[in-house]
Amino acid sequence: MQTHKTNGIVLRTVKYGETSIITSVYTELFGLQSYIVKGVRQSSKKSQGKANYFQPAAILQMEVYHNELKQLQFIKEFQWQTIYNNIFFNVVRNAVAVYVVELLQHSIKQPEANPELFYLTEETLLAIDNSEESIVANISLYFTLQLGSALGFLIHGNYSSANHILDLKEGLFISNTPSHNDYASDEIASTVSALLSINNIAELKNIQLNKTQRRQILQQLQTYMALHVEGFGQLKSLEVLQQIIS
Question: What tens digit of pLDDT does each residue of 103-136 get?
Fold first, then answer.
């Protein structure tokens, strides 16, 4: 069977059998894929530490077997594409990174290639690892909005004194309160508009928010994602992120 070289971002890994794992990876070439990786949990010297490659948020170089007719694929070879400085060791940065990969996992339902989304996620993880704390604190908000845009439900328009309400169901800034309860107004709507106007992650340092504001906005954005992604569900990482983000 032909092999392919692709980079991949690990989303989730579970034990399989006595010595193996099944890992969910968002790949550059094939989108979301599930792989069996044999023998990486063996206690032998050759296998020691190899399971650590498949921590959530790890970015790997892989050589994989790919069969479109199968739900489980196989990895032939793997190595680090990126060696993080902070994500695996810093509690706050790890919580943000785990949120990003879990959000991606809950939002992607089909194994379709989307290189732009892969690069967006990779760029976001690298920023979480290396950026100053004021940027890291806002990345979860930024990535949630960017992910929605990448998946086709971009929020349209801008906040203004006239259009001061964000209709989460319609993804639109409006002037009058909608008939349903899925909307945000005033300060939250204004901040979402500011986040949408950002051209690169470094500009996040210009958005000054406190912990309460971030929690409120992030909660509203969960509603936004749930309204537009069928079967979105609850993110386990959200509660941890809400507790530790400053």
Answer: 999 999 888 999 999 999 999 999 999 999 999 9
Alpha helices for the chain (secondary structure H): 91-107, 115-130, 133-150, 187-196, 211-228, 236-244
CA–CA gap between residue 137 and residue 128 (Å, rounded): 9
Name all domains of the chain by residue range, CATH numbers in brackets.
1-83 (2.40.50.140), 88-246 (1.20.1440.120)
Q: Map residue 172 onto helix, strand or coil.
A: strand
The answer to whether 19 touches 36, Cβ cutoff 8 Å, is no
Q: Look up tokens 């945000």; give the residue.
A: 184
Residue (of 244, 208, 243, 240) closest to 99 by Cα position: 240
The two tokens of residue 159 are: 């906040």
